[in-house]
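Journal club prep, shared notes

We agreed each person brings one worked example of a sequence with its structure written out as tokens. Mine is Angio-associated migratory cell protein. I'm keeping it raw so we can talk through how to read the token line rather than staring at a rendered picture. Sequence first:
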Amino acid sequence: DDLADEMEDADFDDEGAEEPDAEAWETEDDEGVEDGMEAQDDSEVTFSLHSASVFCVSLDPKTNTLAVTGGEDDKAFVWRVSDGELLFECSGHKDSVTCAGFSHDSVFVATGDMSGLIKVWRVDTKEEVWSFEVGDLEWMEWHPQAHVLLAGTADGNSWMWKIPSGDCKTFQGPACPATCGRILPDGKRAVVGYEDGTMRIWDLKQGTSLHVLKGQDGHQDPLTCVASNQDGSLIMTGSVDCHAKLVNSTTGKVVCVFKMESTAPKVPSSEGEEAESNSVESLGFCNVMPLAAVGYLDGTLAIYDLSTQTLRHKCQHESGIVQLLWEESSAVVYTCSLDGAVRLWDARSGKMISEYRGHSAEILDFAVNKDASIVVTTSGDHQAKVFCVQRPDR
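Then the structure, token by token:
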């Protein structure tokens, strides 16, 4: 009996020791990490060389076998998607790497940090071939057909360089950050959105502004994202004002405005907060049907029909949408959100096709390969993950 009593005591002591851990888990749950979020991991490969949040990811366009990721640890890595094997580190950054991408032919990879240091590496030799320092970096993008890099900075300028020669041209915007930008498919023009709500279409060769949308034609708040359809005839802009504007890129005229009626916030909040609780975070055009998708911070994915200019479907997420991407050759749209999940939606029916989990924090960026068989995600949990999303209906 004595022995049994002692055993029971020991058991109780052990249980007591375990309790603080259990409590710690609960507090993490309260901070937004959902129950079971960490337990379920649908990913095939996890890349874990970053030691802080991973902000950006791009796949190499030519083979889709390499990924580049940049993070809050001031590091960027080029690694193999198939097994997470490190190819090389893009070293020398002294601030969070927020932009990273491969040139159209996968010959070069560029990495840019918040302070404005941009570096370009030759992928096959793993050698740095060019670097340049601008003001605080907002966004960066490669030209779709040439070794030309475009970037927007907090002083309102957009910069364009030939790589690796470094020949440079600047496009002077208003005296406020150039918050987002995109080179149009013709490679001759770029659309840039600014913090003051204006949008400009630039002629890249002449360095002149072809169209300026401001006032009623522009947005009332900072632009957050821009996109163009496949032939570049239509541009869509998204803003903190919760509007998405469809613009004819040739005439510079607004074709229509998609407004999301503000849904009441789930948690009662002070009036000031309520006004700021929503914004357009991401948008994009479908290649195979006249559809566009807009992702909002309140978790709404809106599918708009461009031919009738009407809302076709509203797909609700529990938490904010960070980014969305369309599949290249079907009416399927992918979303990643603050709850750490990737979801696939059928834009024709508005129904969710599948959901993939594996991160223990919000997803901050993601990329889909050309044949839509894999998704690579980056997260606040310091990891990048590769998910296989092959679907039986293909």
